[in-house]
Amino acid sequence: MLKVLCSFALLTLIFNSGFSQTKKPGIIPQPASVTWSDGFFTIDHNTEFVIPDTTKGTSNLSGVMHEAIVKTFGFGPKISSRPRSSTPAVYFLISDVRDESLGNEGYQLVVNPQKIRIIANEQAGLFYGLQTLLQLSPLPDNLVIGIDPVINIPAVTITDYPRFPWRGLMLDVSRHFFNFNDVKRYIDQMALYKFNVFHWHLSDDQGWRVEIKSLPNLTKTGAWRVPRTGLWWTFDPPKENEQATEGGFYTQDQIREVVKYAADRHITILPEIDIPGHSLALIASYPELSSTGKPYPVNPGSKFYGSSDNSLCPGKEVVFEVLDKVFTEMADLFPCEYIHIGGDECNKSFWKTSPECQALMKRENITGMNELQSWFTKRIEKMLKSKGKKMIGWDEILEGGLAPEATVMSWRGMDGGIEAAKMGHHVIMTPTSNCYLDLYQGDPANEPATYSMLRLSDVYKFEPVPANINPALILGGQGNLWTESVATLSHAQYMTWPRGMALAEVLWSPASLKNWDGFTSRMEYQFDRLDKLGINYSRSAFDPIISMIEDNGKKKISIKTEINGLQVFYSFDESFPDRTYPFYSKPIDIPNGASRIRAISLRNNKKVSKVISIDLKELAKRPLSN
């Protein structure tokens, strides 16, 4: 009887695997070239994954491959340096003759019923080919203990390579601390979609997160703040003698482990120490570094600008002595050629009354506050250069004069990046209008609290290269997840995906292949994968978008959806709509006495969104839609 049950379960797994392939897998980011063929290559626990001894630079690939396949399929792969039998196998090969069209990160993937071959110029290409192979592999709906799934990979030929060399995501761990295992999980998810830079925002007013052995107060004091829960900027400031118990930091051993973990997945970690502003955690640790020299606590998320000095004092030599110690140890911890120094939103008001700053300005013939920050930034660039590092800063470092070799990360729109590129500097485009993942992605009445709006379609519309700018100076782009309102990995995932998928496609795929309907179709295939991998994500792009319009002097309700082909049903009577309710087809008159509208999206009579519920008085306060 047990044999019969096991055989039935195995047949079910085989059937489910084959059945799921009636629709071609949705690969994100979209490869440069995809040609589907007939037939399948079957992977099971007997399949060999071959990395020949002669394949240069693949020392870490087998370990990463083993881990990825175990997570994906539930069994450990047989990895060898040569095929041990005549059975079909998966081959990873470094090309004997370099294919310049593939560059350092491109690959060719060929699947037929006899074998799979992934060929690349460098190990990075093999790794990205593996990620595509995993996306081609249907995940089992369930795993039966003792029975390995049989995975049918559709026959296909793919040629693929990235559009930009810089494809980044930034995680702010200062506002809320994420332990190093959560950071590694976030890096795993980046690797799925071929991101290659992890920007680690390690310091700010709310916490210092990296161990600096020569400056122990940074983690003794700067890494901790008083606990608060609720809306950011509404918190009470620390009370007298209140214990700072919330926070944390990464030891240098943990950082080295995460750096190696990322490098094995072809992700470079860009560390950021935000100076001269956003430095309250540093100043709380060493009060002599500010213009006032007063003792301040680490900020818990309460308003403090103007009352507490969170900017380092350029006129005090001790500031540069401390930063030299910080960057000496940082340069040893992080092999990345760059260190990010922030430079944004620096409050210069205390500099105006600082005797040290005024003396410096007189001595150096500095005439304004922006020029004073520029002087500071240029000195820091020389410091980093002495340690073998290049400097990156937010676009405020343009103000007062840009440091000679600085790279600019343009966040206040594209203008800062355009200005820097015209000066011959490298630029990473990360404008709030397309790349800030901490913003709302659906109706604010039904989303976690934040500010402003960045819908999925806005991310997908992003074009990193402005007109009339040398494309070679645009290194790429990056999504930024600031965490004032993001306290857990699950919430970080919700804010990142699927907007991170859209950004991955913008930065990897040829611009000529951009297609919104094609992307959203492939995105839904990815949702199924994320469900099975236990990764949280948002479906807000399916939600009805409700607004007021003015039609011949009369206010009406308009409803749209980001995803095409959805049907919207609505109610005004305080009940929850379904497909039996009125169908939206044109702007709606507001019934007398109505106080709330609810709407839901369906496709093929199946609910695909949450119910969006908005108070009509609140809706009336919003700007009218076109």
Task: Explain what this protein looks like in three dimensions.
This protein has 626 residues and is α/β, with parallel strands linked by helices. It has three domains: 2-160, Chitobiase, domain 2 (2-Layer Sandwich), CATH 3.30.379.10; 166-532, Alpha-Beta Barrel (TIM Barrel); 543-620, Immunoglobulin-like. It contains 17 helices and 26 strands. Strands 8-9-14-15-16-17-18-19 form an eight-stranded parallel β-barrel, surrounded by five helices. A seven-stranded mixed beta sheet has the order 1-7-5-6-4-2-3. Strands 22, 24, 25 and 26 form a four-stranded antiparallel beta sheet that branches. Helix 2 (61-73) runs parallel beside helix 3.
Give the SSE map.
Elements: H1 2-19, E1 33-43, E2 48-50, H2 61-73, E3 78-80, E4 89-94, E5 107-111, E6 115-120, H3 123-136, E7 151-160, E8 166-172, H4 180-192, E9 197-201, E10 203-204, E11 207-208, H5 217-220, E12 224-225, E13 246-247, H6 252-264, E14 268-275, H7 280-285, H8 317-333, E15 338-342, H9 355-364, H10 369-386, E16 390-394, E17 407-410, H11 415-422, E18 427-429, H12 432-435, H13 456-460, E19 474-481, H14 489-496, H15 499-508, H16 516-533, E20 545-551, E21 554-560, E22 567-571, E23 588-589, E24 596-603, E25 606-607, E26 612-615, H17 616-620
Helix pairs in contact: 2-3, 4-6
